[in-house]
User: What shape does this take?
Amino acid sequence: MTEVNMKIDGRDVKAEQRSPLLGAIRSLGIQVPTLCHVDGLEPYGVCRMCIVEVKRGKRTRLVTSCNFPSEEGLDVFTDTERVRQHRRVMAELMLARCPDVPGIRELAASVGVEKSRFKTTEPSDCVLCGLCVRVCDQIVGASALSFIDRGNQRAVGTPWSVDPDACIACGACTYVCPTGAMHMEEQTVERWRRELASDQRLCRYARMGLISYKICPNDFRCSECEVDQRLFEELGTHPLLALAPGLRKLPKQVGPFDVVEDRFYSRGHTWVKLTRDQVRMGMDDFARKLIGPVEKLTLHAKPDDAFKPGDPAVTVLSNGRKATLRFPIAGTVAHVNQAVLDDPALVDEDCYERGWLLVVRPDDFYAQSRLLVNRDEVESWIEGQSQKLAQNLKAKGIDELTPGFAEKIGKEDFARLGDEFLKTGAESK
Amino acid sequence: MNVTPQKTKESKARVGERPGGYRMHLMLCAGTGCVSSGSYKIKDALERELKKRGLSSEVAVVMTGCNGFCAQGPVMVVQPDEIFYQRLGEKDIPHLVEEHLLKGRPVERLMYTPPAGKAAVPKMSDIGFFEKQRLLALRNRGLIDPEVIDEYIARGGYKALAQVLTEMKPEEVVKELIASGLRGRGGGGFPTGVKWKTCREAPGEPKYVVCNADEGDPGAYMDRSIIEGDPHSVLEGMAIAAYAIGSSRGYIYIRHEYPLATERLEKGIADAREYGLLGKNIFDKGFDFDVGIHRGAGAFVCGESTALMASMEGRPGEPRAKYIHTVEHGLWDRPTNLNNVETYANVPPIILRGAEWFTSIGTGDVSENPWGGSKGTKVFSLVGKVHNTGLVEVPMGISLKEIVFDIGGGIPNGKKFKAVQTGGPSGGVIPENLLDLPVDFDQLTKVGSMMGSGGMIVMDETDCMVDIARYFIDFLIGESCGKCLPCREGLTQISALLNDICNGEAKEDTIELLEELSNTVKECSLCALGGSAPNPVLSTLRYFRDEYEAHVKDKQCPAGVCKALITYSIDPDKCTGCLLCLRNCPQDAISGEKKKPHKIQADLCIKCGICRDICTYDAVVVR
Assistant: This one.
């Protein structure tokens, strides 16, 4: 972390380089009005209320403080006449859109606007700050909400405007909405009451992934649930906002390899990520670096094929050498990633997200997942694997696991290493 | 198969030695404008006629890219004499073939006659429209068949790429581009070489080279014509850029509404791959580069760099804050060099002829500061109230007057020039007293407009400036992504205020409120679309404020456009009582007898303007 020195309204302040200005501003106790910003979500910068003037050298410009990166020597002014003027006009625009929403009236009043000079054609409850859409995507991970249409027709809705299967009824969107326009999707909960067997009636904390397993004894009436309400009170915010930012992990470096701690790993270096009732599969960074640049991928299963652990899943061709990775679990193939088959280099670019290989419907994933490496274990496991591989290669005169080390491995050694680390020979004969 | 410089030379030789050799080439325009006015029918007719006369082995018909003189389409140039024919019809062909091609007598009737002149101008380069143009980006226009790679190579194509790969280090290419002073032709005017340098030095692999062909300005078709007329010039420019910044992957983001351009690009890419000019180990120099095409679904905002990249990644085409630039974190968060079609097309000639030559064209001095001037040429699509609408490429620094009057041939129907709008829908209007303004990036910005991607719309005295501003704002409302508040809500309210003004419902303070709001939208919007969207309002307020005030205070529309503020009447002194308007009025609002002055009944009149257009005595008055 590099620290930078800035001046905000004439006061000296230190901040982490490239961290949003808003943090530094608030650390001085200076109030800047915001609407579309909630700590824990990526800055979005659409309400434009947090504008400030920044000066670097001779040039002064207007920027949004929620996403402008802190830099050495920046001179920031949060309350100039120019800033106040624009904030007032924007508050009037908001008020013209949402004349009856208390939250918007308060925000407008805080910058000195009681009444808008602009006309209201159709009063709305929603100011399109996008908090609901973003919390569902970035923190819940469900992406059950999205924007529809564009320009002044833009609105928040569910994909294709149907009752979203992806909604886990966690209530995070309702919680973050500043205008009260989001209402809990009762339909989803009603359907669960009708359709789900008792052992499938997971508590919303289990659905959010915050606890491992709990059955709801209250017929999904969270407000009557003692556990639910106590957790809410203890945390002082929606539990996902308090606990979840840590769930959405960025890749972490373990020796020369990247791991992402939001999924399971097989002993043969494939990863498995749960998305509701399906799982996504791909190869991990260890596998791709050991195999080398991917030239061709051949899948051994097509949609609707059933498979069991140890069945061949994919054969990877690199430098004229082949390695076959195997299924770590049992299930049925749902779909395959055509993009990666067309362009296998995607695996090298991004093996954890865009370079996924298959989506499968697993047989009883919770039972099977116990055989996999979980997120708490993955770091130490990869570390062990990395050391073991380094020793193995040292014996062959390859000293370091530097980029491109795979190309130095001979064909026979490669087959042996593949068998040992990637379980390319059948795992459960 | 790999092509070495040697092989390129061979292929160049091959083209010259076409078996038999043709006596004449008929360069028939196959740009979108001429195709829609029937150039393929002309082609069939020509080929039929040539066959009939036994000339098929002597005269070749070549379908070229856009010639530029779109108003006169379909157009054809007969080479080697450079005789320019226009507005061809199928019926003209037998006569033309017999007279010109067989008997050697060019057909005057089918040539261009300037609006003011009486005599036809036979040679293309003598026509005012072409005379002041200088072709760099469009260097091959009308001279090659865009679908034949050999013809591009024969005109020196891919020579710049060969030179770069065999003789220059990537750093030297970047240096040359910076020295040339080339600035982005998509509108921003950012120095291309500086962008390449930043991208080259940005950490992260792989790097991408992207070409922005999402040209969405209404009435503008510069990029479309470059791609349709000379697709390889863009591919070559991209390959050079890739070499300079250290990339091996390129994408072209092209709007889905450009099927012909896309087709020609696809063919161009396939041919270049076959010749080893794209793909692995180009010119045996260990340089890999390939290009893919990404079709845009038709959103104006996707021409904005971050929205374009979001769209390519499969997300909605919405911009993000550009505080961290796309040259560092662009497509898939990797360093990405995005340039416009025209910018790439300018790169090969700069390499071949050198930065010094390029800086000899244009304004300012870029030797110290790449922002110090505007070098080279710019392609404009000249439309609106001018005689010669079409595509023109002019040297930077040419005056607006020369473009509108010398190239464009002035205003038709004896009307008076009022303003010219540059820079697309979010550009500004420039009034008559600034017509001597030299056209370059900085001068246009200074007067409240911008270069933009090269739209140029000429307006005459019958255009109402408030109505024009409203038209552009309404276009932008429909094209705003709606992500940020000032652009979404602000433009909607600007439009409402303009409607009030046009409808005569504005209050005393409406103009001030409009100005205040426009400034906020301009300064606070998230991306350049919102940031420039109020330009039509602000620039018309700056130069035509009296017209706004006439609407608000006097409830009058001086140009006679805003229906709520005008009335139609008949001047009894001019009216001859011919009954023509009376018969054509859809509302039966005109009464009168033969040879006696007619009258318009105000309560029935819907102000459609038919009577005014139809009157041969100019007797219908609009006030």
Notes: DSSP finds 24 helices and 20 strands in chain B. The two ends of chain B are 72 Å apart (CA to CA). The first helix of chain B runs from residue 5 to 16. Chain B touches chain A through 34 residues (CB under 8 Å).
